[in-house]
Specification:
The complex is a heterodimer of chains A (about 200) and B (about 120). With about 200 residues, chain A is an alpha/beta fold. Chain A has helices at about 30-40, 100-105, 125-135, 150-160, 175-190, 195-199, and strands at about 15-25, 45-50, 70-80, 85-90, 110-115, 135-140, 165-170. Chain A is globular, with a radius of gyration of 18 Å. The N and C termini of chain B lie far apart (about 65 Å). Classes of the chains: A alpha/beta (about 200), B mainly alpha (about 120).
Chain lengths: ~200, ~120
């Protein structure tokens, strides 16, 4: 960041502080559904354009400079009174877009990894990524209709999750369920904040 | 050559990709200046006659009567987020918008913030 707080002195408003949360997981696991269930606005889509600054990340060999790739992300918003506003971003499913993950995770309070027990391996990359990056995360198993309900301990074992990573069942279509997942995430992130672990 | 129409060259231009970079006049250096969730709010309306402000700049100034994030501005105007960052940089430098940056990562440990967010979520 070039500057931190850059409110103009002329600003007539006290602006809320924006906070970022991520919803990750494999393709089709219900990320956008969950964003939509808890967001106060209809989920919006934004596009990040990859230009030559990411050469080396993406294989653009043989393509002349200024080649562009566009990555779309769905997101929603939850206002917390006048002081804070949460933005929930569904992370792009494709692993080749790590560079967007880096940008997205910078400054993120934490992440929800959505898992589908029928395709559990799909969420491995997300779990790996947040573990390596040290981003606090919880795992929410989306209970699709017809999906066998697994023992959460078994899922935890299968994902090789650290002992303190919360794992829960959820229904990504339900606001109340999504809300509970987010509360669990914020509680977990609170416990993981650097000052909490220092003592 | 010399202003002749070359259909072949025309085909090389992918209009939906190229146009945003024309709006931003090829500049991409502002990419790192604003986060996707940096909030912008208009503090000085435009008159529509300012030199160097494009319709897209004007659209941002109109849109940001209430604070909106870079991601929201991009979605509403159907522009890539990178282009919105460039345009927002122009507007910020010229005093049309104020910008609220997110908390730096190290500061995402403010106890008050966690409490407020938890209370807010529970009250939803």
């Amino acid at each position: 960041m070039v500057f931190g707080l850059s409110e103009s002195p002329k600003s007539p408003l006290k602006m809320p502080t924006p906070i970022k949360l991520l919803i990750a997981g494999g393709f089709g696991v219900g990320k956008t559904t969950m964003v939509g269930a808890v967001s106060e606005i209809r989920p919006l889509r934004t596009e990040e354009t990859l230009t030559d600054r990411s050469v080396g990340v993406d294989d653009l060999s043989g393509v002349e400079a200024k080649a562009t790739t566009t990555v779309a992300m769905d997101f929603g918003r939850i206002s917390i009174g006048q002081d804070f506003v949460l933005y929930l971003f569904g992370t792009p499913g494709q692993e080749r877009f790590w560079f967007v993950w880096d940008e997205l995770s910078r400054g993120a309070l934490g992440a929800v990894v959505l898992a589908d027990t029928r395709r559990l391996a799909d969420c491995f990359p997300s779990v790996d990524y947040f573990e390596r990056r040290g981003t606090p995360f919880v795992v929410a198993v989306n209970c699709f209709e017809g999906a066998q309900v697994f023992d959460l301990d078994e899922v935890k074992l299968a994902l090789n999750l650290g002992g303190d990573v919360p794992i829960m069942l959820c229904d990504a279509r339900k606001r109340e369920s999504g809300k509970e997942v987010l509360i669990e995430l914020v509680k977990h992130a609170y416990g993981k904040r650097p000052t909490a672990t220092a003592h | 050559m010399n202003g002749e129409w070359h259909a072949d060259e025309e085909r090389l231009l992918d209009a939906p990709t190229i146009r945003p970079y024309v709006i931003a006049r090829g500049r991409t250096e502002a990419q790192d200046r604003f986060d996707l969730i940096s909030l912008a709010v208009t503090v000085r309306p435009t008159t529509g006659t300012e030199i160097g402000l494009d319709p897209e700049h004007q659209a941002i100034v109109r849109l940001c009567r209430r604070p909106l994030s870079v991601a929201e501005i991009a979605a509403h105007l159907d522009l890539p987020a990178g282009i919105v960052r460039v345009l927002l940089g122009d507007l910020f430098d010229r005093g049309f918008v104020a910008v609220q940056q997110p908390q730096p990562e190290m500061d995402v440990l403010d106890e008050r913030m966690y409490k407020a967010v938890l209370d807010g979520l529970r009250a939803l």
